[in-house]
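Collaborator request, handled under Task 6.
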Amino acid sequence: MHMTISAYLFPILSRKIVLEQLSSYYPKNDLKKLIKHINKEYIAIVKRASDIGGNKNIFSGSYLISMYLIAAYKNTTKKISIDEWNKLIKNILINSDFIKKRISKSNQLSKNYKNKIIEASKWCRENEAKYPDNWQVELKDSENPNLTHKVFTKCGLCILCKKEGIPEFTPCLCATDYITVGFSNCKLYRPTTLAKGDSCCDFYITPL
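Structure tokens returned to the collaborator:
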């Protein structure tokens, strides 16, 4: 991938809240050095990551934010356990006004949202050969007003974490879906995930 404007923007928007969460583990002077290492690692991850279509892809924002979190994880493994990172990521999301505002605007049960998923599904499928590490998703039972049922048979974050040599970090990123769905005043039931070795990530989104 190339360092696009979006690639530069997402870590800037995430950096403050990430630093706040890491401050309980590192003294102030060490944090300054740490953030430099994280930024350097993030740029390296972006440059070696597979292209997934940039802004034409609705999953590009999640892809970039996850790269920054992966960079942070890679630079803190000696200090912060995977279980602690699970909690950290949840706190980062809960305390991020930017992410909250971005997601809360979208009603994940609405016809408009479902149409976006249908369009994304078609685009991802048509461009799978060009972007083989991209998500593949299908919307089921689209006419049910009280359910959004999404089935992912490929996940860009699973592939990214494996390529970066940290498959154990994928479930931390998976867990964020429960929080982000909550931001849109819905709840998520997901019995299977690709990260656990299942054949798909099965999303059942319903009203609170």
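The cover message to the collaborator said: "Residues 107-207 form one domain. The chain has two domains: 5-102, 107-207. Please let us know whether this matches your experimental observations."
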